[in-house]
Amino acid sequence: MSIVILLVIAIIVLFGVRNIRMQFITRPVFSFFKKVLPPLSSTEKEAMEAGDVWWEGELFRGKPNWNTLHGYGKPTLSAEEQDFIDNQVQTALTMIDDFDIVHNRKDLPPELWQYFKEQGFFALIIPKKYGGREFSAYANSTIVAKIATRSVSAAVTVMVPNSLGPGELLTHYGTQEQKERWLPTLAVGKDIPCFALTGPEAGSDAGAIPDVGIVCHREFDGEETLGLSLTWNKRYITLAPVATVLGLAFQMRDPDGLLGDVKNIGITCALIPTDHKGVEIGRRHNPLMMAFMNGTTSGEDVFIPLDWIIGGPQFAGKGWRMLVECLSAGRGISLPALATASGHVATKTTTAYSYVRQQFGMPIGNFEGVQEAMARIIANTYQLEAARRLTTQGIDLKVKPSVVTAIAKYHMTELGRDVLEDAMDIQSGKGIQLGPKNYLGHAYMATPISITVEGANILTRSLMIFGQGATRCHPYVLAEMEAAAMEDETSALDRFDSLLLGHIGYAMGNALRSFGYALTGSRLGSAPVSGPTQQYYRDMTRISSSLAIMTDLSMLIMGGDLKRKEMISARMGDVLSQLYLASATLKLFEDNGRQQDDLPAVHYVMTERLHLAAKALNDAIRNFPSKVAAILLRVLIFPLGNHFNAPSDKFAVDLVTGMLKPGPARDRITFLCSDFEGDESGVAEVEQAFLAKYAAKDLYKKLKKAQRSGHLKSKLPMIELFEQALEKDIITQAEHKQLVEADVLRLAAINVDDFEAI
């Protein structure tokens, strides 16, 4: 007992007496910290400083405040935004024939281009005072998603001017003169913008762009002008073939010191009319046969004045930060909108098709093999809609959540790919035969585009999510890195010492929470609600604590090597991502008013998210480079083993059963698929067949009963079966008519297009 008392006293003295702590704790740890500190490039540093920490910070720190999540409110459309969707968007949908756009025109029809321009589809983010719509991120996302349910090519055409590009950059950073010159013409479609960032030698490593602008004097408009000689070669630039104004990112250099002592000024963005002398718009690309305009641009020794830099000369060298902040908004709105649209279409059509398509005498939706895949489609669509709403809500709260939007970009585009693959598996021949009736094929073909653009998904997952999240979201690491970079050693030590005690307490708290929750099945955790979702909040707090303690140990042991251990850092990023997606799911359930018919989807999604988060933790521990640390982590995180299992078969069956009928739950996750009078698309066709067959479900049961009793023959073609039933007075004339009409719609829905033989 006395030994324990002496040990406690020693610890109190060691940590409580500043001089002793500084000598034996702070100074050695500080020295070690500086040694293992991961070096940051200038572009990494700018990326770290750009954007804001939002809800992901709560999830990362081990003890999320769930009331904060619920306090963000529910995303809503203004009256003006809803009116635009109900009128202009609906009208645009009636003008879209995606098969004609992709296979015949290879472009949008002129009347659709004109309508988009006249009605402000290219001005969703431009302020009203310049003639724009100035819509919310949520409205922007909803508009793009609704269009994407009918045509990816049309949606991308609308999405690009409202994402990273001249409009957004000018709105945030442009000089007053630049805004007044360009925003009104962009708002009415007189000018079409594109933004050139990617080149043959710089894709995901956009900070390494070789394109250069050299500060020099040249004659411009008859006067000696200080400006830039630009040389660039860019590719994959959406809207480049039709653009009238080019946003350009390049490395700005001042070798002759015309602006000052700095020779390499850094990445800069400029705005250049495409008819300016020397600007070349090259040949068009063919992105997986999609019809949106995409191509190349180049220029050699093209002179522009300095005031063409976006934001003016004072923003020279600040382009990377501008791009990171604007890219984060684009990642959170545009590409997730496309993915969510895929989910809505896949859920609406696959549930309908599985009900009307029969094999072996019953709807294919009754087969468990089909139900397994269909449950994933429905659950992933619920997840996509939840993440779309929470992410755009963050943007509308005027934060720039760079980590959250990286999560959204990666995971939502991957979920979009998953739902389309499952939908294609279930609808099979219906999905692969292209034609006007096909509603899956083009979206399926286009999916890799979203996976690839605005940061390749592999690198987004392995480098960005955890790489930025670990530093930005951690309550101490970024401040400790700043202390380590201080030139005054004494001030640096004092600053580090004040942070160290807090960091130690933070780590100990997370370790104890993780261990305690693991031993008690998370029952010690608090939850903001009671009822069927209460345990999910508790389990998420447990996993959040586990991620926090694992992050601290990873940084302590691997230091700067951590960012090169991409597989481990990606798995820890997956934990954060799954927690974010799960948060979005619970919030959508609350925002929808805790609808009981949403619970099957919530149970499936939450079980899957927790399973994947725990699996990522387990895999990271299994591959941890220090075996001693791995044992410690396993004791703290999974002392009784990992019991977070994937969704059960019952969850899948319950989810699908509730969706194989019309109802509010199905409507809530398919509402982006707009209905309108005269709609002759394949989506409308299969939905009409579904509704007609469901309305006649009692008649089909009556026929089945008659077949089982021997009053009607089995395995008859439908029309013959109806005729026999009418002849034997099993059904009335009106019921016969209803069945025939439903069967006509059924046959139309399961049939595919055919064409003249070549």
TrEMBL record:
<dbReference type="GO" id="GO:0050660">
    <property type="term" value="F:flavin adenine dinucleotide binding"/>
</dbReference>
<dbReference type="InterPro" id="IPR036250">
    <property type="entry name" value="AcylCo_DH-like_C"/>
</dbReference>
<dbReference type="InterPro" id="IPR046373">
    <property type="entry name" value="Acyl-CoA_Oxase/DH_mid-dom_sf"/>
</dbReference>
<keyword id="KW-0274">FAD</keyword>
<dbReference type="Pfam" id="PF02771">
    <property type="entry name" value="Acyl-CoA_dh_N"/>
</dbReference>
<comment type="pathway">
    <text>Lipid metabolism; fatty acid beta-oxidation.</text>
</comment>
<dbReference type="Pfam" id="PF00441">
    <property type="entry name" value="Acyl-CoA_dh_1"/>
</dbReference>
<dbReference type="GO" id="GO:0033539">
    <property type="term" value="P:fatty acid beta-oxidation using acyl-CoA dehydrogenase"/>
</dbReference>
<dbReference type="InterPro" id="IPR006091">
    <property type="entry name" value="Acyl-CoA_Oxase/DH_mid-dom"/>
</dbReference>
<feature type="domain" description="Acyl-CoA dehydrogenase C-terminal bacterial-type">
    <location>
        <begin position="471"/>
        <end position="755"/>
    </location>
</feature>
<dbReference type="InterPro" id="IPR050741">
    <property type="entry name" value="Acyl-CoA_dehydrogenase"/>
</dbReference>
<feature type="domain" description="Acyl-CoA dehydrogenase/oxidase C-terminal">
    <location>
        <begin position="317"/>
        <end position="458"/>
    </location>
</feature>
<protein>
    <recommendedName>
        <fullName>Acyl-coenzyme A dehydrogenase</fullName>
        <ecNumber>1.3.8.7</ecNumber>
        <ecNumber>1.3.8.8</ecNumber>
    </recommendedName>
</protein>
<keyword id="KW-0443">Lipid metabolism</keyword>
<dbReference type="InterPro" id="IPR015396">
    <property type="entry name" value="FadE_C"/>
</dbReference>
<keyword id="KW-0285">Flavoprotein</keyword>
<dbReference type="GO" id="GO:0004466">
    <property type="term" value="F:long-chain fatty acyl-CoA dehydrogenase activity"/>
</dbReference>
<dbReference type="InterPro" id="IPR009075">
    <property type="entry name" value="AcylCo_DH/oxidase_C"/>
</dbReference>
<dbReference type="Pfam" id="PF02770">
    <property type="entry name" value="Acyl-CoA_dh_M"/>
</dbReference>
<dbReference type="GO" id="GO:0070991">
    <property type="term" value="F:medium-chain fatty acyl-CoA dehydrogenase activity"/>
</dbReference>
<dbReference type="Pfam" id="PF09317">
    <property type="entry name" value="ACDH_C"/>
</dbReference>
<feature type="domain" description="Acyl-CoA oxidase/dehydrogenase middle">
    <location>
        <begin position="194"/>
        <end position="292"/>
    </location>
</feature>
<dbReference type="InterPro" id="IPR037069">
    <property type="entry name" value="AcylCoA_DH/ox_N_sf"/>
</dbReference>
<keyword id="KW-0276">Fatty acid metabolism</keyword>
<feature type="domain" description="Acyl-CoA dehydrogenase/oxidase N-terminal">
    <location>
        <begin position="83"/>
        <end position="189"/>
    </location>
</feature>
<dbReference type="GO" id="GO:0005737">
    <property type="term" value="C:cytoplasm"/>
</dbReference>
<dbReference type="InterPro" id="IPR013786">
    <property type="entry name" value="AcylCoA_DH/ox_N"/>
</dbReference>
<comment type="similarity">
    <text>Belongs to the acyl-CoA dehydrogenase family.</text>
</comment>
<keyword id="KW-0560">Oxidoreductase</keyword>
<dbReference type="InterPro" id="IPR009100">
    <property type="entry name" value="AcylCoA_DH/oxidase_NM_dom_sf"/>
</dbReference>
